Inverse folding.
């Protein structure tokens, strides 16, 4: 990312059986985040059943995921101690804003 105050996130991410948990650095803070396998599927148009496949999809989509996270953080008014969760509508909003086509709706 090239915006002031935004650096690439820490590379560690982990699967907890329901979602991928990861951190993104934003304005000098490490922000905990989460994305479910269903939302990851919406983003990548790929179904994954094995944890290693979920993590591979996450790694491939990480630039888009981080862009979604940073957009949500810029719009956030109050900080929360809970992980910032990426929802399906966040993926749709990102696709619309970035001009990407939503493959799931074709």
């Amino acid at each position: 990312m090239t915006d002031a105050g935004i650096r690439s996130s820490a590379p560690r991410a982990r699967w907890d059986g329901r979602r991928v948990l990861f951190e993104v650095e934003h304005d000098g803070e490490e922000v905990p985040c989460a994305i479910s396998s269903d939302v990851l599927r919406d983003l990548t148009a790929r179904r994954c059943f094995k944890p290693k496949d979920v993590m591979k999809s996450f790694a491939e989509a990480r630039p888009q995921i981080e862009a979604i996270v940073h957009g949500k953080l810029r719009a956030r008014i109050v900080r929360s101690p809970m992980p910032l969760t990426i929802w399906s509508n966040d993926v749709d909003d990102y696709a619309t804003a970035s001009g990407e086509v939503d493959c799931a709706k074709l």
